Amino acid sequence: MIQVSNLAARQVHFLKERDKLTEEDFLRVSVKEGGCSGFSYKLDFDKTKKDNDKVFECNGVQLVVDSKSLLYLMGMTLNFDGGLNGKGFTFSNPNATKTCGCGFSFNV
């Protein structure tokens, strides 16, 4: 399971409204090789689901993850830090053994 915090959900809804996206558009979270620690997170809006995608629904956000990325993301919570020194979206990933200061890079 992948969770979306209340603050992250509000930000996703704000971005969808701002960009005039529809109900068909969902948030895709994936993992790519690279970054300071070995892997990096990627967030995109998408409207095309693939056969190997897993769909999660949390706090009104439909989140889609491909099966390969899911191996690294299972149990993760997507957060949003919007304070004065906020970092934007952040990832609380119990699978990460090492993270970079940027918050978008990790290793397992």
Q: Can you describe what's shown?
A:
The protein has 108 residues and is an alpha+beta fold. It has one domain (3-97): Hypothetical Protein Aq_1857, Chain: A (Sandwich), CATH 2.60.300.12. Helices cover 19% and strands 42% of the residues. It contains two helices and nine strands, in the order βαββββαββββ. The strands form two sheets. The protein has a six-stranded mixed beta sheet. A three-stranded mixed beta sheet has the order 1-6-7. β8 (98-99) and β9 (105-107) form a beta hairpin. The longest helix has 13 residues, at 6-18. The chain is globular and about 35 Å long.
Question: Which properties best describe this structure?
Answer:
108 residues; alpha+beta; Hypothetical Protein Aq_1857, Chain: A; six-stranded mixed beta sheet; three-stranded mixed beta sheet; 2 helices; 42% strand
Biggest sheet, strands in spatial order? 4-5-2-3-9-8
Q: What can be said about the biggest beta sheet?
A: 6 strands, mixed
**Low-confidence stretches at least 5 residues in length (pLDDT < 50)?**
none
Approximate shape = globular
Cα-to-Cα separation, first versus last residue: 18 Å
H-E order: EHEEEEHEEEE
- What kind of oligomer do you see? single chain
Q: How many helices does DSSP assign?
A: 2
Mean residue pLDDT = 87
CATH domain class:
Mainly Beta
Radius of gyration: 13 Å
CATH superfamily annotation: HesB-like domain
Number of strands: 9
CATH topology: Hypothetical Protein Aq_1857, Chain: A
Strand content: 35-45%
Give the total of domains. Answer: 1
The structural class is alpha+beta
Q: Share of helix among residues? A: 10-25%
What's the architecture, going by CATH?
Answer: Sandwich
